[in-house]
Design goal:
The chain is of the alpha+beta class. The protein has 3 domains: 24-117 and 172-250, Aldehyde Oxidoreductase, domain 3; 266-434 and 588-747, Aldehyde Oxidoreductase, domain 4; 440-579, Aldehyde oxidase/xanthine dehydrogenase, molybdopterin binding domain (Aldehyde Oxidoreductase, domain 4). It is built from 19 helices and 28 strands. The strands form 7 sheets. Strands 3-4-1-11-8-9-10-19 form an 8-stranded mixed sheet, sandwiched between helices. A 5-stranded mixed sheet has the order 6-14-13-12-7, with helices on both faces. The protein has a 4-stranded mixed sheet with strand order 15-26-27-28, with helices on both faces. A hairpin with a 5-residue loop joins strand 16 (440-447) and strand 17. Helix 6 (193-204) packs across helix 7 and helix 10 packs across helix 11. The protein is globular, with a radius of gyration of 27 Å. Bound molecules: ligand MTE, hypoxanthine (HPA) and dioxothiomolybdenum(VI) ion (MOS). The site of hypoxanthine has 12 residues, from helix 9.
Length: 753
């Protein structure tokens, strides 16, 4: 099935938050944010702004009727600053005016005074001064000390990976309207409607049933709207509560870039030990996560880093620790992969370090250590239905690793200015929210008396195609044409208590709930046929919109069946709930079975470096990916391609830069380079792994949203290998992104980072 949004998107008819038809008396909000990164004794003089013509209100922390607190996991983040400021871009005041223009003019008239304090921008500085969000977490298995002592080779190094800007096309925004009896209806561009509902209720000091949140779709989220869509929704709700008028707030790109958190930069170190047969016997890593000024989702992201610290390898002795370091940057947040990519970059760096020292290709070490069936992952889960080796062997059969390497070697032998490099990147990504209680979802299905169907779930459409998948599930279960089915908006009054659409689990969780709801309705409808024709229920089938008894077509079609059911007073609505079975995790022991299943894959990335300029091109990406049994190859291929591009961007060109005062320097698209049509791989071949699929995945179609991002890590090492081909003196530096500037330094330097 084609993505059901594609026509609307191409014609510009799809409705995003800024397209909502607002009431004529709608006010517009603008947020004043801090230009210093750390201060106390904050004082705001709002008199100038308040008297500016067209301004209706200027809202400060003291005007909040409930709690000035938007923290999710830890209560450490005010909606509006009170006495202290902790990052540049922190919201200080909300100006509400007749127009957007007036609100932005007026906010310039607010006078801010404060007492500036020293600023910390890196995780290492924070750790030195003991600035942490929460206590460290540590996972382990076996005995690393003993194992290192027995290893033939031991290597150590440091690794840095930078943050990443989400750059969703649609910036953050929300719209609030007052309803009866002090209730507020919010339209929000959020991945987590229930998060918005819960936190808005807290800020206003009302119960959750007074806040309705409705989400039509997002112009991209990528994790940036899992938690950080919330403050803007709280602000318009607050403004509506105080002015009694509808209020709209859409951040412009500059405000969005400087006020919102990004992927967490990590400063890490590793120690890896191998035996003579290249088996990794021991691995140790310390991760310093730059969390920013408040917790946001950092503790959960830190946890996923630990879960993915061994990627797709079996290592018998492992010890990892992660520190969430508090700095004066905007709170960093979820970003596709959720800490997993940062973890994987470190183990891959360790393997590359070992390979460099042993003078062998890294893929020999990768291959020798792939997970096998029933291996114990170091957090206690026994690996089942492992596809790591299958991906490798199918890849080698189709694409021939030796052949790719030979072509590269012969190119490099005969070229001086241009050098090619190749790297393989295996992935293994755990599917489920690592926080077990979040793994459940609901669906609500109405069959209307004319036979048409309306579906509500907790799933938020953000471009990943989940609505198309939901529609497919209903169409397939009922065996009716897709035109009969409509996907409703995601709304907290229809489907309550939803987990955010995240962790790549949206289709699995909501799809399984939807499948259950459709199956019960189908059962109920079959009983109507059974009663009418006096036959057993199991002899009845609905096929392509027609009713069959014992494979014989009757004169009843779907519409007739539905109408008869309605007339016989059968309930045509069903609500179902799904909770992932089997998963658990014991945080006191840091052991358990947190994931429903894992997604595997293998990519080879080849690149050409211009050794005069330091520029590079990604020539080719070949992938064998574990889709399970894809329920929609078009949508799923799109996810692999998009994630790959985003992963390559993170590893090679996207460079977030803050100065020592905590000011975002990469604050526009002229200073922050994202992959475009020219930088994407010239040739991408994606092959589906031949596999049965997994029953824990919806219709055996495995989660696909995040895992392929990590193929992008291969781009870093492919370029690294090309540099080595030109400059044999070069010792690998694990400091991403691999920008052309860095490539040039590494081509001609000995040991520059
Ligand atoms: N694809 C598009 N087009 N837009 C997005 O915002 N978000 C990614 C991924 N793919 C995203 C996307 C992230 S971070 C996640 S967790 C998943 O989609 C969420 O959707 P899923 O659970 O349905 O895979
Ligand atoms: N992944 C993504 N988002 C999340 C998770 C997770 O594991 N836990 C909480 N939010
Ligand atoms: Mo995705 S980072 O789990 O929203």
């Amino acid at each position: 099935m084609k993505n059901i949004d594609s026509n609307g998107h191409v014609r510009g008819e799809s409705l995003f938050i800024d397209d909502i038809i607002t009431k004529s008396n709608t006010l517009h909000a603008a947020v004043l944010s801090s230009v210093v990164a750390h201060a106390n004794q904050l004082q705001l003089d709002i008199s100038g702004a308040l008297s500016f013509p067209g301004v209706e209100a200027v809202i400060l922390a003291k005007d909040i009727p409930g709690e000035n607190q938007i923290g999710g996991i830890i209560f450490d983040e005010p909606l509006l600053a009170e006495d202290e400021i902790h990052f540049q871009g922190q919201p200080l005041a909300i100006v509400v005016a007749e127009s957007n223009f007036i609100a932005r003019q007026a906010r310039k008239l607010i006078k801010v005074t404060c007492n500036q304090l020293p600023v910390i921008t890196t995780a290492k500085q924070a750790k030195q001064q003991g600035g942490f969000i929460n206590p460290p977490r540590s996972f382990g298995m076996g005995d690393v000390e003993k194992a290192f002592a027995e290893c033939d080779y031991v290597f150590e190094d440091e690794v840095f990976s930078n943050g990443q800007e989400h750059l969703y096309l649609e910036t953050q925004g929300a719209y609030a309207e007052r309803m009866e009896n002090g209730c507020i209806k919010l339209m929000s561009s959020t991945q987590g409607p229930t998060v918005v509902q819960r936190i808005t209720a807290r800020v206003l000091g009302v119960s959750m049933n007074k806040i309705e949140v409705d989400v039509t779709r997002l112009g991209g989220g990528f994790g940036g709207k899992e938690d950080q869509a919330t403050p803007w929704a709280c602000m318009v709700a607050l403004a509506t509560h105080l002015t009694q008028k509808p209020v709209k707030l859409i951040l412009d790109r500059h405000d969005d870039l400087k006020m919102t958190g990004k992927r967490h930069p990590y400063e890490s170190s590793f120690k890896i030990g191998l035996d003579k047969n290249l088996k990794i016997k021991a691995f140790q890593a310390e991760f310093l996560q730059n969390s920013g000024a408040a917790a946001d989702l950092s503790p959960a992201i830190a946890e996923r880093t630990l879960f993915h610290a061994t990627n797709s390898y079996f290592i018998p002795n492992v010890k990892t620790v992660v520190h969430s370091c508090k700095t004066n940057l905007p709170p960093n947040t979820a970003f596709r992969g959720f800490g997993g990519p940062q973890g994987k970059f470190v183990i891959e760096s360790a393997i590359v370090k070992a390979a460099e020292q042993l003078n062998i290709p890294a893929w020999k070490i990768q291959k020798a250590n792939l997970l096998q069936e029933n291996d114990e992952l170091y957090y206690g889960q026994i690996a089942e239905n492992v596809e790591a080796q299958n991906c490798w062997s199918q890849f080698d059969k189709t694409f021939k690793i030796n052949k790719i390497q030979k072509e590269i070697d012969s190119f490099n032998d005969t070229n001086k200015q241009f050098k090619k490099g190749m790297a393989l990147m295996p992935i293994c990504f755990g599917i489920s929210f690592t926080n077990t209680p979040m793994n459940h979802a609901r669906a609500l299905v109405h069959i209307y008396q004319d036979g048409s169907v309306g579906i509500s779930t907790g799933a938020v459409e953000m471009g990943q195609g989940v609505n198309t998948k939901m529609l497919q599930i209903a169409a397939q279960t009922f065996s009716i044409p897709e035109q009969l089915i409509k996907l409703e908006t995601t709304n907290t009054t229809r489907v309550a208590n939803t987990s955010p659409s995240a962790a790549s689990s949206t289709a699995d969780l909501n799809g399984k709930a939807l499948l259950k709801a459709c199956q019960s309705l189908l059962e109920r409808l079959k009983h109507v046929v059974a009663d009418e024709f006096s036959v057993g229920v199991d002899l009845i089938e609905i096929n392509n919109g027609r009713v069959f008894i014992q494979q014989k077509e009757t004169d009843w079609d779907w519409n007739k069946l539905v109408f008869e059911a309605f007339w016989k007073r059968v309930c045509l609505t069903e609500n179902a709930h799904y909770a992932t079975p089997k998963i658990q995790f014991d945080k006191t022991k840091e052991k358990g079975h947190p994931f429903a299943y894992h997604v595997y894959g293998l990519a080879a990335i080849t690149t050409t470096v211009d050794c005069l300029l330091g520029t590079y091109e990604i020539d080719r990406v070949k992938i064998v990916h574990d889709f399970g049994q894809s329920m929609n190859p078009g949508v799923d291929m799109g996810q692999v391609e998009g994630a790959l591009a985003q992963g390559i961007g993170w590893m090679t060109m996207e460079e977030i830069a803050y100065n020592n005062d905590g000011k975002l320097l990469s604050n526009a698209l002229s200073t922050y380079k994202i992959p475009d049509v020219f930088s994407i791989a010239k040739d991408i071949q994606i092959e589906s792994l031949k596999t049965e699929g997994n029953d824990m995945a919806i219709l055996k179609s495995k989660a696909v949203g995040e895992p392929p991002l990590m193929y992008g890590i291969g781009a870093y090492f492919a370029i690294n290998n090309a540099i080595k081909a030109f400059n044999p003196q070069y010792q690998c530096q694990f400091h991403a992104p691999m920008t052309p500037e860095k490539v040039l330094m590494r081509l001609y330097g000995k040991n520059s980072s």
